[in-house]
Write a structure and sequence with these properties.
The complex is a heterodimer of chains A (346) and B (142).
Chain A (H helix, E strand, L loop, with lengths): L2 E5 L7 E4 L3 H6 L15 E8 L2 E10 L5 E8 L5 E4 L4 H8 L22 E8 L2 E7 L2 H10 L2 E2 L4 H9 L4 E8 H6 L7 E9 L4 E2 L13 E10 L4 E3 L6 E8 L2 H8 L12 E10 L7 E4 L22 H24 L9
Parallel strand pairs in A: 1-5, 1-9, 2-4, 3-13
Antiparallel strand pairs in A: 3-4, 4-11, 5-10, 6-11, 7-8, 8-10, 12-17, 13-16, 14-17, 15-16
Chain B lengths: L1 H22 L13 E7 L2 E2 L3 E5 L3 E8 L5 E6 L1 H8 L12 E4 L4 E7 L4 E6 L5 H4 L2 E7 L1
Parallel strand pairs in B: 1-4, 3-9
Antiparallel strand pairs in B: 1-2, 4-7, 5-6, 5-8, 8-9
Classes of the chains: A alpha+beta (346), B alpha+beta (142).
Chain lengths: 346, 142
């Protein structure tokens, strides 16, 4: 059976919904259907960063049906561990920030390097999920996915390049609907996944949330950040994307999170930030850069607002020349406007 | 102040001239003369050549180069033909010169002759690709 694939920004706790057949795909969430459409429900993500380690916990939700469905997730670095995540961390975070009150890269490792083929770094099975950590360029990751039966949406080549230029690490998660059914998983049951990776600064891939969606579709997501101190954040322009919570995490919240399975790493004190996204897919052309170092300098590259090197691009040169021309025209115009009128000659 | 404005305008004009050839690759071939050989590159699920012009009644060779790691199609024809393929289920096309599948990172060459002048669209009918913008125009002129 051919797998369907979607790529999801997995920077913490993220909910993907897998469904069984084409009809269900169109009705539910998170997948690229046979017509190329993606209907991704609101996802929730926690990117926690403490002592140079980033923690992601991802929940894959079973929505019935058989067959296999997959997800590709760009990661800021090579995971040191991929394991089953805590059972209710996501829900506890939602509870903490309701009602609403007002992420990376050791990553830049081998960024932009060419890869003939993707390298499998890790393979982990968690319940009905088969997880593969891959290293490769956008092209080789796409080839790997195709060879493994996934169908990529038309925007995938550009989006995979967008990520692989900054970090060549991806996580492919294949959800086996038949295995889930055999395990007795009920509709809506989630499989949380906790990814641990060292990074110099976290970033949260947001653009991936729009993969396969028509520009006018809406991307909805909640992104939680847990950092030692108040982080400096940078992202692109998208109406409907905003920070709705930014304050020290309460001891009660941290104690609760720490008591969940595999969450013993949660520090004694932290700053909790919540970003809510309710934006048009066409506007989601950026990621969320996080500077948790205290230097207040989130990276434009990590935010996807700048590429690492512009040396290769004729378009860049054209842009530079055009911008130069326009700037000079404006300057010249200003200069002309400011020219003093000549006195009429006698 | 006039002495500042003049050189700025000259430099700006120079910059615009410099930018023109670099930008020209993004344009179409409107007004171009008909040719019997064309190359259409595909990258990031876009036909980088958005329109071509061919002569009526002559064999035309079109090279289709897919630089993407996913498959694409190049289907040229009238509105009825495209409508049929929008709901079609054929996974590959390789026997009709006007219907070509170009596998990932491969190149295909097709040769075809148009009997009548007119304007036709070429479209990739894989799911979602037309909506993503994989549409171009082929003009047949006498």
């Amino acid at each position: 059976m051919r797998r369907l694939i979607t790529t999801i920004g997995a920077v913490g706790l993220l909910t993907l919904v897998f469904v069984g057949g084409p009809k269900a795909v169109e009705a539910c969430a998170g997948l690229i259907g046979p017509n190329g459409a993606v209907n991704l429900g609101r996802t929730t993500t926690l990117a926690a960063y403490d002592n140079g380690i980033e923690h992601y916990v991802t929940s894959f939700e079973f929505q019935g049906g058989g067959g296999e469905f997959g997800s590709l997730i760009p990661l800021p670095g090579v995971p040191t561990n991929v394991e089953k995540g805590g059972a209710w961390t996501l829900q506890r975070l939602e509870q903490e920030t309701q009602p609403p009150v007002p992420e990376a890269a050791q990553s830049l490792r081998s960024a932009g390097a060419a890869f003939d083929e993707a390298t499998v770094l890790q393979e982990v099975k968690i319940d009905a999920l088969d997880i593969t950590v891959l290293e490769g360029g956008g092209e080789s990751i796409a080839q790997w996915a195709t060879e493994h039966g996934f169908r990529l949406s038309p925007d995938a080549p550009e989006v995979l390049d967008f990520y692989s230029q900054r970090s060549p690490i991806f996580l492919a998660a294949v959800f086996d609907g038949d295995a889930a059914a055999e395990r007795g998983q009920a509709l809506g049951d989630g499989t949380p996944v906790h990814i641990t990776m060292p990074t110099t600064n976290p970033w949260v891939p947001l653009r991936i949330l729009a993969l396969g969606k028509p520009a006018e579709d809406v991307v909805q997501a909640n992104v939680y950040l847990l950092t030692d101190d108040r982080p400096a954040l940078l992202w692109g322009n998208a109406e409907g994307t905003s920070i709705t919570h930014s304050k020290p995490a309460t001891s009660l919240l941290l104690d609760d999170l720490r008591s969940d399975e595999g969450m013993g790493w949660v520090p004694q004190s932290a700053w909790l930030t919540k970003m809510e996204i309710d934006s048009a897919a066409g506007d989601m052309t950026f990621d969320l850069a996080v500077d948790a170092s205290g230097q207040n300098q989130p990276s434009r590259v990590a935010a996807g607002l700048e590429i690492l090197s512009e040396a290769d691009s004729g378009i860049s040169m054209a842009t530079i020349w055009t911008a130069t021309a326009l700037a000079l025209v404006v300057l010249a115009g200003v200069a002309v406007l400011r020219m003093p009128r000549r006195s009429p000659q006698a | 102040m006039k002495s500042l404005a003049t050189p700025l305008l000259v430099i700006a004009a120079t910059a615009l001239v410099m930018s023109a050839p670099l930008l020209s690759g993004c344009g179409n071939e409107a007004g171009a003369t008909a040719s019997t050989e064309h190359t259409i590159d595909i990258r990031y699920s876009q036909f980088e050549t958005e329109s071509i012009t061919v002569p009526v009644g002559e064999a035309v060779t079109i090279t289709l180069r897919n630089d993407d790691p996913i498959d694409h199609e190049w289907m040229v024809g009238d509105a009825a033909m495209h409508e049929r393929h929008r709901t079609g289920t054929e996974p590959f096309h390789h026997e009709i010169p006007t219907e070509v599948t170009i596998p990932a990172l491969e190149t295909r060459v097709t040769t075809l002759t148009f009997a009548d002048p007119g304007e036709y669209l070429y479209i990739c009918h894989l799911p979602g690709h037309e909506a993503y913008g994989m549409v171009g125009t082929l003009r047949v002129i006498s």
